[in-house]
Amino acid sequence: MDLIKLFLLGASGYLLAALYDIALLYRHFTLSKVLYLGFFVTAVPYPLIFMQYASPHTLLFSIVLIIFMTLSLILLIYSVLLEIPLKADKSGDVYTKGTYKICRHPGFLWYTAFNLCTALYFWYAPITMVLLGYTFCNLILVTLEDLVLFPKMFPTYREYKKTTRFLFPF
Questions:
Q1: Which of 39, 47, 115, 139 has minimal CB crowding within 10 Å?
Q2: Total domains, the chain
Q3: For residue 91, pLDDT beyond 80
Q4: pTM summary value
């Protein structure tokens, strides 16, 4: 599968993820369960890229990059999929602890770090462009969530915005 098709596949996952948030906002819970798959669709291109391309780097440098990719991926999965369900006090409130104390969208940080390491791993401009495109899609999603959706979904989100940075903790 060529990189343009892979980009379109991943980008469609971001569209589904945005529709998932909108479905939650309007309490279409059955539809939201289907649209939740969008988050997983965003991940589908990565194994395909790894199966089709190889790193041009030395084994040692490739291993170092794989370690950083793995750490970023673990942090991403923890922040986005596990932390809130495991640590939140009560449903419906904004979770403001843990990685969400660092910034309002820590998943964006870990995802960007993962994409940076992946781009360095392959060291191939077309793959880097695809990964930049995914990062941009993610930025659009978290901006939509931050400015439009989350303030409507969570009554205390505006207060959270006053105390916690948008993306970067500094």
A1: 47
A2: 1
A3: no
A4: 0.93
